[in-house]
Design brief:
Elements lengths: L10 E3 L7 E6 L1 H4 L5 E7 L14 E8 L1 E6 L2 E6 L3 E4 L5 E5 L6 E8 L5 H10 L13
Antiparallel strand pairs: 1-2, 2-3, 3-9, 4-7, 4-9, 5-6, 5-8
């Protein structure tokens, strides 16, 4: 069995406005899972992730904790834990944390895989960082 926690995996903080923590859970190059990748995003309170789009990739977010809003194209909707949002290509999309004190966290899914290269490059540029001390290091 393979269990991974996005808070404990190496990742990196994005730069500039829309600062958020990104890590990769599964990706084709390392995990032999074709055509799909999974990652984890942590958005601090009162922060909006940068509005972006993917030319040929669908992005899904499964909200794990927190509250916020999603913007997909011209539509805006409220989010809570358990919600799933779809950002189809090439529609601009964005997650916004509306909470004054709690992070918004989600698992993101990219299908087909490929755009996770941006996260790999971010980690390579800044070096591996951790959102939370990996539990195996506590022992």
């Amino acid at each position: 069995m393979d269990i991974r926690n996005g808070r404990e995996l190496p990742g990196a903080w994005t730069e500039g406005p829309g600062r958020r923590f990104l890590s990769l859970l599964y990706r084709p190059e390392e995990d032999q899972i074709p055509n799909i990748s999974f990652g984890f995003v942590h958005i601090p309170p009162q922060t909006a992730a940068s509005r972006h789009q993917h030319e040929a990739t669908h992005e899904f977010w499964v909200i794990v904790s927190g509250t916020g809003q999603a913007i997909v194209g011209d539509e805006r909707g409220d989010l809570k834990a358990g919600d799933v949002v779809h950002g189809p290509p090439p529609v601009p999309h964005q997650l916004i944390n509306t909470s004054p004190d709690e992070p918004l966290e989600a698992v993101y899914i990219l299908c087909p895989a490929g755009d996770e290269r941006n996260v790999v490059e971010l980690i390579e540029k800044h070096g591996s960082q951790f959102l939370q001390q990996p539990s195996h290091l506590d022992q």
